[in-house]
Input
Amino acid sequence: MTLSTGLIWGGSALAVTGLLLLGWCILKALKIRSAGDDVDATERMQTLLAVNMGAVGIAAIGLGCVVMGLIF
Output
């Protein structure tokens, strides 16, 4: 396996992982929103925001790896 093939497959795995985490964040946010408790919901949403940003970062790194694999 060449370096470019490894970057494409590894980047694809990271991108899919990030997208799955984003889907999980959406479902969790909908559950928090439907609960209705304002004080607790705010704290839980702030924690979820950190996970969401991490998921976006993982997906972005994965897509960057795929692009690097395609270029080289």
User: Anything to note?
Assistant: The longest helix spans residues 38-71. The chain has one domain: 3-71. The chain has two helices and no strands. The two ends are 14 Å apart (CA to CA).
